[in-house]
Amino acid sequence: MRSFVRLLDSNPGVAAPLIVTLLMIGVSVAVSKHVLNRLEETQSAHFRQLTGAYLDGLSTALHPYVLRRDPWEAFDALDRARSRYSGLKSQAVLVILTDGKILAASQPKAFPLYSTPPPEAGDTTGEPHLDHASGQVWVHRVLRDGGIEIGRIAALIDIKTLQEVRHETLATLVRFNAALTVIFAVLGWLLVRRAMQPVVRLSDHLALSTGGRLEPIAEIDLPPPDTVVGRAYRRFNAAAVAASDREALLQRLADEERRALIGRYASAMAHEVNNPLGGMMNAVRMIQRHGDNAEQRASAAMVLERGLAGIHNVVRASLMTWRGEADSSPLTAADIEDIRYLIHNEASRRGLELSWIVTSRVPTGIAAQPVRQIALNLLLNACAASAAGQVVRFETRHEGACFVISVCDEGPGMPEAARRTLMSDPAHASSGTGGLGLWSVNRIATALGAMISIEGPPGTCVTVGIPLECATHPEMTIARA
Amino acid sequence: MDPCRPFSRRRLLLAGLGGAGLAAAPELVLRAAERDVLLFGLTPVFLTSDLALLDGLRRYLEQKTGRSVQLVLRRTYQEITSLLVSRQLDAAWICGYPFVAFRNDLSLLAVPVWRGDTRYQSYLIAHDDVPAENLAGLRGTVHAFSDPDSNSGYLVTRAALLSLSATPAAFFRHTFFTYGHRNVIRAVSVGMAGSGSVDGYVFEVLREAEPDLLRSVRVVQGSEWLGFPPVACPAAAAASQVTQDLRLALLGMADSELGRQVLSLLRLDGFKLESPELFDGIADQVRFVQAAAQ
Fold it and tell me: Could you tell me if B280 and B154 are in contact, meaning their C-beta atoms sit under 8 angstroms apart?
């Protein structure tokens, strides 16, 4: 039954005609059985009436001859009756005396005078069965005179015609019901196919939208709006337009957030560049004033070198982070270190202590871009949630078959809206209230097949477990901070 | 009734009273002289089942006698004989056996002429399945007789068996009476009886009229030639006008068209006067049987 329901769900175009066929077969069997039973009852009643009249007539004619034990007159009566009951195919009629001997028979050569009748002719019990395999049945009538039995009549009746009628009726029923079953099965298949057409079309359109965009059904293909299908198609189109609007809105929000981030990073970068610039300017002035002093010149050159190295690191990290969406290069230890450079300024600005623990080697099978996006967004979120003097902890490690990134803070705990943004299905999660960064983490993690868990309060500890077998995934290109 | 018991007046009168009770017309109980209709009895010595023949015979007799004629049919010879003896019939076509048995009460009116002779034979017939060449070969068969008062349909075979020191009950497996020569042939034809005793004249007529009926029947042996079943009248009425008119009608049957048609249906040449001695052969057999019964 369960498999049948599964078939009905998976392929109604086959299941529905199958149901119709099975129902028709059931109805056919029930109807055929009822018709045959009624036919048998009618035939039996008719047969009883006919044989009753036949035996009544014979009894009346034979009574005086049986009483006188006159074989010739008994035979003559049987012979005359032969042509008077054409509706009954009598094969043989025996007049049997009480001593069990035949007084007369319609077939004298087969049943000689005063011989013993065959055993079948002696069974007077029960009703004759019209389905007897031989196609012949014996019927009986006891002859009495003054209540005393004087003999009996046994008639062998041919019932092949009755059986042929029943067989022909059965064959007709089978042929007719089979034809009806086939017709209804085909009609059922056509009707279900027609009824399922809108569903199939909607399904096809939904299948085309796996790229995240629903394609509305062309206006020319829409049925009239006052039909069920027409209303369904229009609702689908409305949903497609709404989804498209929502997608555009999200895209716009993401762009704005990105621009805001770029601004913040540009500010941070300027700050990072500005810090060594003061020392570098002092070094330049030292060279200008004491350039002839080799020791001071060398000291100034070292300051310049460190400053330039710091600027170089910041620029390189920024380039690595923002080099473009098409970057699918594998994750390296330098990428993790770049994240440290990028977040260092933000942590310093907020007066936070940054704890950086990288306990295992960096796996090579994971793309760098989505990992950097996840880590950077979580670290920015943790910095934003922390008060001055608190610690933001970043940790990478291996757990089983996963590369785990863990970002913890000592803030008040992640708000419920932010939790939903991070944990819900990104297709349905709203980025408006929970932050676009967390929504991006959710999207990227979902695309990677990563697991996200949140601990706290106190504090917040977000852990993302990225499966190691997740190689550079094409869908990583959709991940944007 | 024991068919082996010879005729007796008391037995016949009892049967006659019964026969009178079965009569179709109330005038039958009146003596012939007391009514206007001529009552002519018929027995199965010929094909009484042929309605066209009966109608032709009645019309011919009415035409020639100038009287209304009623043909009286009964199932057995005994019934007709008793009606005739008791003068409830003017005349009857009876068998030679009852004529001999009531010789003193009956008078010979005319005798049919068949194939130029006033004599006929009794046939012993058998079904094709019975390989008998004579009477002895029929031992153990089921035998059909015509009538216990029939010469050819009973008496001849009974006498023949006596000559073999046998009786029907001992010689045959079973016997029964069909009360008609045609019925004897039917019984043998369908296999109800293996053999039968039948009037040779009736058999020969049926051989022409109903050959299908005789398809599986053959004649085993014929008897000696005996007096043909005669037309008789009560002896007391032999000189009456009715009797004279009837005799003339019978003797002149070949002289009229209607009479010839009747004779043609009967396959007879005509009727003629004969002396009672014609039936001495039958009388001898009657005496032979009666002697054996005593």
Answer: no
**CB-CB contact of A426 with A438 (8 Å):** no
Contact, A421 vs A439, CB < 8 A? yes
Helix B51-65 with B257-266: angle, nearest 10 deg: 150
Confirm or reject contact between B191 and chain A (CB < 8 A).
yes
d(C-alpha A341, C-alpha B185), whole Å: 139
* Residue B250: Cβ-neighbour burial (10 angstroms; 0-12, 13-18, 19+): buried
A468-477, B20-29, B247-256: range with lowest mean pLDDT: B20-29
Contact A149, A142 (CB under 8 A): yes
Task: Note whether B192 contacts A71, CB cutoff 8 Å.
Answer: yes
- Would you call A99 an interface residue with chain B, using a CB distance cutoff of 8 Å? no
Give the DSSP per-residue string, A408-429. Answer: EE-SS---HHHHHHHHS-TTT-
CA distance to A397, A399, A407, A464, B222, per residue, from A357 (Å): 9, 15, 10, 15, 146
Residue B211 CB contacts under 8 Å (≥ 6 apart), including other chains: none
- Decide the pairing of beta strands A90-97 and A102-105: antiparallel
Question: Is the Cβ pair A113, B191 closer than 8 Å?
Answer: no
Closest alpha carbon to B178 in B158, B200, B150, B205: B150
Q: Phi and psi (nearest 5°) for A432?
A: -70, -40
Tokens of B212: 């299908």
B176 and A72 in contact by Cβ < 8 A?
yes
Contacts of B177 in chain A (CB under 8 A): 72
Among B176, B186, B195, B216, most A C-beta atoms within 10 A, so best to mutate, is B176
Sign of CA dihedral B51, B57, B60, B66: negative
pLDDT-based confidence at residue A320 (cuts at 50, 70, 90) = low
Average of per-residue pLDDT values in chain A? 81
Supply φ then ψ for residue B69, to 5 degrees: -115, 135
- Interval A425-439 mean pLDDT: 65
CB of B39 less than 8 A from some CB of A = no
pTM of the model: 0.60
B120 — contact with chain A (CB < 8 Å)? Answer: no
B23 pLDDT tier (thresholds 50, 70, 90): very low
Determine the Cα–Cα distance for residues B197 and B222; give it in Å rounded to an integer: 10
Contact A112/B142, CB-based, under 8 Å?
A: yes
Q: Which of B286, B292, B289 has the alpha carbon at shortest distance from B100?
A: B286
Pairing assessment for the beta strands B142-145 and B174-177 based on DSSP bridges = parallel
Residue B125's region, left for phi above 0, alpha for psi from -120 to 50, else beta, is beta
Residue in A79, A113, A114, A116 to test binding to B, most B beta-carbons within 10 Å:
A113
* pLDDT tens readout for residues A256-295: 877 877 777 777 777 777 777 877 888 888 888 888 888 8
Contact B193 A113 (CB under 8 A): yes
**From CA B236, how far away is CA B30, in angstroms rounded?**
15
Q: Does A158 touch chain B (CB under 8 A)?
A: no
Tens digit of pLDDT for each residue in B78-92?
Answer: 999 999 999 999 999
Residue A151: which of A230, A69, A221, A82 has the closest Cα? A69
Mean pLDDT of A26-37: 84
